[in-house]
Amino acid sequence: MSLVDPLPAGRRVPVVERPVLFGLLDGGLDTRVTAVIAPAGSGKTFLVRSWLDARGPAGQGAWVSVERGERDSQRFWSALVNEVSRAAVPGARVEEIAPAPGFNAEGVIARFLAELASLREGLVIVIDDLHEIKSAEILSQLGYFLDHVSSRVHLVLVSRHDPQLGLHRRRLEGELTEVRADHLRFTIGETSELLAAAGVTLSQDGLTLLHSRTEGWVAGLRLAALSIAAHPDPERFVAEFSGSERTVAEYLVAEVLDGLSPEIRKLLLRASILDRVNGALGDLLTGDSGTERHLSALAETGGFVVPLDAKGEWFRYHHLFADLLAAELRHAEAEAVPGLHLAAARWHADHGHILEAVGHALAAGDPDLVANLLVKHYFSLMLDGRQAAARALVDSAARRWASPELAVVLAADELIEGSLDQAAAQLALAARQAGEVPEDRRQQFEMMLYVTRLSLARRVGDFQSVLEATQPAVPFPEPRNIEDIALQADVRALMLMNLGIVEVWSGRREDGERHLIAAGDIARQIGRPYLQASCQAHRAQAISWRSFTQARPVAEEAMAIAARHGLQDAPVAGAALVALGSCMVTSGQLAGAAEAFRLADAALRPDLEPAIGFVLQTGHGVINLVNANYPEAIESFLEAERLGKSLVTSSPLALQARCAMLYAAVLGGDNIFARAALEELTEAERSTGEVREVIAARLLAEGDAHAALAVLEPTVAERAKVHHGLVLIRSLLLDAKARYTINDDVAARSAVERALDLAETDELILPFLWVGSPELLERHHRHQTAHGAFLNVLRDALSGRGVAGGRRHAGSSFDDLSETELRVLRYLPTNLTAGGIASEISVSVNTVKTHMRSIYMKLDAHSRTQAVEYARDLGLLGRTAR
């Protein structure tokens, strides 16, 4: 018997129409969820797919099949969101998600729900093989999604068993339609129809017995039809098997295999080691040809081979039958199994299917191949968002073998998980055993070791030791093919990015910016938006040390890249938001900065990015200080100081945070605490401009202007060390306050003018808010300054009238809004919702909301109404009759 044509001509196993079940599924659209729950082989998937196809264009739907043993939240939600995006449903503008490390499931789900809320028509989402989800986290996230999804979305859940999703509540509320095993079992009439259409004739007793033995189990009946068609005595065949579904399946598979040609039998057995098979892979494992033709025929006739794509190139076995065939393979060809896995591993590696390759290398028991594949590809898997799946393979390998290559992979994996101590321990182990790595794999190993060390240094602040370390003599092995070039581009971009970040935070900002630009260019060329956005976010941090106005568009570009690729909630967006918020706070846009910092709080893990966390907490503290919320400011500065101290390398960050905290204490009237804390500092620390500023502020608060001037003198004379130009401007303003106190008006005005000189170029409004002395500016007359327009902006800021982008209220042009933001802005005076605006300009509602938040931040507006008012003042919108 040949399964290429297992039945006589024209007698394929037919499709039995099931109008009653179609009607049940149609009726389910009036509820929120349909659950199709039945054992393996019950025809669940075939039924739902046929029903969805039969609905035609009206049955707009997205189909997601859960990966076997799914534990990866990113893979699951990316598949779901991207399938809905590709469904092209009218009114739905769902943006695809780009793969990235550091997946923020909560943010992605919230955005997905908002996008689905804009639907104008109904949408069916089918989640097939739901039982394959092995993660309580994913099930919890899916439960939240079901509870909050738009009423226009109908979920069809296909599973072998009841999922832990609280469906009982929906049953009580009348919002659940259920299709169970009893619904799916063939009736005796449908069994008769199936057999008759397949050309099989049984007596009524034989038909009744077959239906009884299979209990109407669809897969069993389809296999029985195959076997009976080739059996010389159909009645005897039916009489000879009985038992459970698994027993029936084992019997029927044995019957099928016994009747096959040797070629087809070998294909079925050997391909059972695979999760999916195509023609080339099947030919490799069997040593024959024609696999794709055989698989296509099996898919048409058997019911246990399932096509996975529209082209019919990839197939899989029904899971139950794959297990049975694999058991039969171990019984029939046990000695061949390791070799088959090894051949499959090499084929998958050659064709870029790395996770499958590693899995088969593990099954083959080849530690060298496992280690080589993981070292070579781990970073690319991470950037593809596959670290959760890779982690399971790494753990499995580490439980069986130990090697320096596995140690460096474990270090990278622990780093992603946030286990910094474990990462450091594995890195040290890998470095000690480096000499054991075979020569032909040494270069790749050394490069992974170096990049992982850079990444760890970035997170713990051990900057100097890395900068002093020798880089690999030959950074990359000679590429052999296009795949090698792509892999090297991933590693090169990661290396340059991490090196650039380390250099920025260690004070070598020019080198850091140059390396970040190079890394960003590579990331753009190879389509790695996560890396590209990260490079821009950290470039903005580097640039901000010389100019906040130059840093701001770079931070905004990082945000735009993240938004275009669905990464608004990823850590990379958090880094960009911190940079943007820092720029906004220095230009006096406090409301916009506060919103940026709030969003960054949700996206970042400060313990994994202490330097960025320091800037974020400092930003919170500054806003509270300027708004006279001194206890809250002190709390934020203390947290910033803790993060600054967590850096291994001696850093000025902790001292800056302590000085800011003590300044807030002085403004809050706690001079005794400030004096005591200042006395604890070293002489070197007390000589810095930051500490001198705090001492001077305390002395002024105590009424000793002359002592304050003496303390400030080294700073204003630019002899004292300061870590940022903001300190010099603030010190000049304190100097002016002290000089007005002793009636040295000329010197006071000179100090203010000098502060204005330094501040106007970069639109630095923060120092004037920080010192908080409007009388300094009121006494600085317009005819006495070269900064009249800027002076007006500062007076507005100090009087509480606010600013929108520094000098923009003073009449200069406003060019910070992007073209799309300007389009969105023009709809803000209307009554259109965000969804309505999205429909008008053909983008997703999430994109509109992102642009609206950006507009509010750039205009320093608290609300849509305020944004419209400010935009009219700036001439960006036409004025009303008022």
Structural class: mainly alpha
Average pLDDT across residues?
82
Please tell me the total number of domains: 7
- What's the architecture of the largest domain in CATH terms? 3-Layer(aba) Sandwich
Which radius of gyration do the C-alpha atoms yield? 34 Å
Query: Which CATH C-level class of the largest domain is it?
Result: Alpha Beta
Instruction: Calculate the terminal CA-CA distance, rounded to whole Å.
Output: 89 Å
What proportion strand?
Answer: under 5%
Classify the fold: give the CATH topology of the largest domain.
Rossmann fold
Name the shape in a single word.
elongated
What is the helix tally? 46
Largest sheet, in brief, is: 5 strands, parallel
Low-confidence stretches: 1-13, 804-814
- The proportion of residues forming helix, as a percent range, comes to 55-70%
Strand order of the largest sheet: 2-3-4-1-5
Query: Which homologous superfamily in CATH is the superfamily of the largest domain?
Result: P-loop containing nucleotide triphosphate hydrolases
Number of strands: 8
